[in-house]
């Protein structure tokens, strides 16, 4: 177990190292959800996530003999960067085992901070097993990403900052993987203000802590792939779980579409970049916490290290879902002027034509005809229906996706 004093001590250790990140009221989310929603901007923390707090606090307590053998950690990416930066600060060698499919941006960032990266396994738990194996061979100190009292205490400093900036906060909503972040936050918050509600959020695709919380025992899950890779943990921490049982009020889950929508909303409306794990608290505020209507909610936006390729796909999917981007195809006679006429009809509706493919050589297209595939930027679903109606009126058989 950790105490409030441990967390206060960690804050002193982190002074001049970790930023005191902003707690910003989000006008869009406040209006949308009927709650006063504040975002704790850990996506703007050094290394792009809260993980630096716990990693640095743990490494700061290493003895001189331990430092000689260096440190080793396993991570999906954010803990890796925190460990690498903290170790570099103390002049210690750091080896990080990351899953093979960890975002390249996180791998490169860890290496930039001086960490030696080993890629192993398809998920965090496999990387963890490999790190333990290496640790036994090298005698390096293992820096656990969540199941460590010093790490939990470091993460708990977030709650101290929230309560300084918003003393009358009603609810703190926290992403949950192995439980280190929420354990530290819950201990700090509940010891300062026992009536505060602390709510954890997991992805439905990997909800080990949510199931364990419901069944009141540690449960392992196989789960599935998720864009919230930073909280994809099969087995909750042995040290974090009893703390969560004692201090956390509830753990809810959100699905992949809700996470993607939250990432897009934060980017477009709140001007904040969040990775999948970082956005789950906002996804929960939007979709799962209606019982807290009218309350002051602090949602921890825990990280912003999202791979740009994933971000591009999320944006594209989000635009299609909201009716602001559409793909359509049709067959037209392969004659001069027919393509121009087809595109002019669409352009006259105010749609922006992003790309055009004209193919007369497809096997499923009759001789003398061509397949036209276009990508359009539209206003909304009503605009798409207008385009569909106009093309149908002009005898075009169009498939819209």
General description of the model:
The protein has 401 residues and is α/β, with parallel strands linked by helices. It is built from 16 helices and 14 strands. β7, α9 and β8 form a beta-alpha-beta unit. α1 packs across α8, α5 runs parallel beside α6 and α12 crosses α14. The longest helix has 17 residues. The termini are far apart.
Order of helices and strands: HEHEHHEHEHEHEHEHEHHEHHEHEHEEHE
Termini separation comes to 53 Å
Q: How much strand?
A: 15-25%
Low-confidence stretches: none
Q: What integer value in Å does the Rg equal?
A: 25 Å
Overall shape: it is elongated
- In terms of structural class, how would the helical and strand content be classed? alpha/beta
CATH class of the largest domain: Alpha Beta
CATH topology name of the largest domain? Rossmann fold
The helix tally amounts to 16
Overall pLDDT score: 93
Q: How helix-rich are the residues, as a percent range?
A: 40-55%
Number of domains: 3
Tell me which CATH architecture of the largest domain applies here. 3-Layer(aba) Sandwich
Instruction: Please tally the β strands and state the result.
Output: 14
Strand numbers in spatial order across the main sheet:
1-2-10-7-8-9
